[in-house]
């Protein structure tokens, strides 16, 4: 019996050795019998690819993100989408808090001073800011935002959050106006989902409202922030500092950040723990098994 054809896009290297029950193909392909596709959310499966795969019935996303898929078009085509919800949100929240600490305690500058051999006592870097008492604005109170707020609370910070609508089960104060949240906050941590509705949600106006002493942290998607405006604000001093794990283009061109001061940059580490990757891979394999067995999917996309 022949194995079912599975489109894997982008290629997933070593993980593909676990897909022994499938005939793995990569894009571009002229195969017309592909009924399932495996992708990473921010890469996705384009409408053109969907159109070229007439038998496609299921898209399995490795991780929680689905922003690389036109959900309305997929629904119109009768394609079910699964993802890895509640697998890595705690890990992403850890990175958000790490970036917040790094910007307050100048870890990036401190390490550079040490490695460059320019450490001159008594203070290797300028006096830093303590976290206790800072006002933290969280943009997006989904699983990641809630985990970030829970962690930030433990540092003795005051927390408010913004989203498209209030939530009855949210423990923290809701601010329906993003501009007002930015004006209030010392730290703005962006946890919003990345799709067309949130593109450049953190605009130049929001960045300037956060101000010359403000800290902007982004662990959602790069396009949620106006990256050009962010870099300009860092260079001019209109924004105090930034901690970024995600970028508009990944890998981000390093020249964009060459002269951007007061920032800590990490290469999309967010959900990449060993534990999350293992759980995510198990989720993928189980969803693929259930799809081909005609069983209820483990984690279909809600809504």
UniProtKB/TrEMBL annotation:
One of the record's GO molecular function terms: hydroxypyruvate reductase [NAD(P)H] activity
The UniProt record lists the keyword Hydrolase: no
SUPFAM superfamilies: Formate/glycerate dehydrogenase catalytic domain-like, NAD(P)-binding Rossmann-fold domains
Entry keyword set: NAD, NADP, Oxidoreductase
Domain of life, per lineage: Bacteria
Residues of the signal peptide: none
Protein name: Hydroxyacid dehydrogenase
One Pfam family, short name: 2-Hacid_dh
Gene3D superfamilies registered for this protein in UniProt: NAD(P)-binding Rossmann-like Domain
Taxonomic lineage of the native organism: Bacteria, Pseudomonadati, Pseudomonadota, Alphaproteobacteria, Hyphomonadales
PANTHER family in alphabetical order: 2-HYDROXYACID DEHYDROGENASE YGL185C-RELATED, 2-HYDROXYACID DEHYDROGENASE-RELATED
GO cellular component annotations of the record: cytosol
Originating species: Candidatus Viadribacter manganicus
Span of domain D-isomer specific 2-hydroxyacid dehydrogenase catalytic: 31-300
Annotated D-isomer specific 2-hydroxyacid dehydrogenase NAD-binding domain residues: 97-270
Alphabetical list of InterPro entries matching this protein: D-isomer_2-hydroxyacid_DH (IPR050223), D-isomer_2_OHA_DH_cat_dom (IPR006139), D-isomer_DH_NAD-bd (IPR006140), NAD(P)-bd_dom_sf (IPR036291)
Record-stated family: Belongs to the D-isomer specific 2-hydroxyacid dehydrogenase family.
